[in-house]
Design goal:
The chain is mainly α and 229 residues long. The protein has one domain (17-194, 201-228): Up-down Bundle (Fumarate Reductase Cytochrome B subunit), CATH 1.20.950. Helices cover 67% and strands 3% of the residues. The chain is built from nine helices and two strands. It has a two-stranded antiparallel ribbon. The radius of gyration is 20 Å and the shape is elongated. The N and C termini lie far apart (68 Å).
């Protein structure tokens, strides 16, 4: 009987749109910028100028994501995936229907929050960091603090990067575990926006792309005038 029910549910599964284009573009652009920042920092010298540019771009993305997490599409909003202990316990017990968490599950949602906070701390310390080798490529806000504080920010900036690498490794390990153990593909939906779901699909609300573009332009423009002018 259980096999028949499982087969019936499988036959009723359908592709459901769960991620909007702005959220997916944010995710993959963030991955590219993170890699570019690491590469430029490793090269040193004049490459540090591009490291700073990438940092400001990443800061713009983070501001966009914070705002989009409030006014954006349903699955992108923090209110839809930042859940309390009860929802987490239901998820761990397998009692949380997928239609109640079509985007990030409760554990994945908190991982998103931790990653965003860690990235924000990394960017913030980078803005005040000093180029202790030549002092030619200080962070955009380093001039507003003393040299001692700027050098301290540099140390924290480097230390936080190691922590970020650990979080990235944990994130990748979780994706692999879901693929191998739970047979769930988490990468595909973040590429296409669509996820295979069984049963009656949830009715999700998606914000207009023009709102996302306006949010990004305001985020990037505001940071540009605040940091680079």
């Amino acid at each position: 009987m259980s096999n028949g029910k499982s087969g019936k549910e499988e036959s009723m599964s359908r592709q459901v749109k769960v991620w909007d284009a702005p959220t997916r573009l944010f995710h993959w652009t963030l991955v590219i910028l993170f890699g570019a920042m690491w590469f430029c920092a490793e090269q040193g010298g004049e490459w540090l100028q591009y490291h700073i540019y990438c940092g400001v771009a990443l800061a713009s993305l983070l501001v966009f994501r914070l705002v989009w997490g409030v006014i954006g599409s349903q699955t992108a909003r923090f209110s839809s995936f930042v859940r309390g202990p009860r929802a987490i316990l239901r998820y761990l017990k397998g009692e949380l229907p997928e239609r109640e968490a079509p985007g990030h599950n409760p554990l994945g949602g908190w991982m998103v929050v931790v990653m965003l906070l860690a990235l924000a701390a990394q960017v913030l310390t980078g803005l005040f960091a000093a180029d202790v080798d030549s002092y030619l490529y200080d962070g955009p806000l380093a001039k507003h603090v003393g040299s001692g504080l700027a050098e301290a920010a540099t140390g924290v900036h480097k230390l936080l990067f190691n922590g970020l690498l650990g979080l990235v490794g944990l994130h990748v390990a979780a994706i692999v575990a879901y693929r191998v153990v739970k047979k769930q593909n988490l990468v595909g939906p973040m590429l296409t926006g669509y996820k295979k779901m069984a049963g009656e699909p949830p009715r999700l609300r998606f914000a207009h792309g023009a709102l996302a573009l306006a949010t990004l332009l305001l985020s990037a423009g505001g940071l540009y005038f605040a940091l680079l002018r």
